[in-house]
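S1.2 Input.
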Amino acid sequence: GKITYNVQNPGTEEWNVKLTQEPLTLEKGKKYRFTFKVTSSTDRKIKYVFQDPENGYEWYGEETLTLNAGEEKTVDYELDLTEKETSSTIQMNVNMGVIDEYDAEGHKTSYVPENPAAITLSDFVLTEIK
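S1.3 Output.
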């Protein structure tokens, strides 16, 4: 399946415009492959993130994507839980409004999209790597 978000207002925080899937269970010592497809009607950035809201929003992985208008991007990301504990309360978000970015010194800046966009997400798959 697929879903299209017509983003007119990006909000003021990353989580203001998002797709969420929860709860997911990820197990200690395992690796997972996360894939999906995305297109946008305008150039923009989006970010997907895996985190655990039941444990202080502990971070499990993320990536910021730069999308070119009209071009489909296929995401292929590996989650490595070698040093993470098992959790059954993981949340996966695809943030599509304001995107927080950090420089080498850890200073936060925000990417704020200038134009509305139709963002289409499809073919989400999360599988254990054997």
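S1.4 Remarks. The mean pLDDT is 95.
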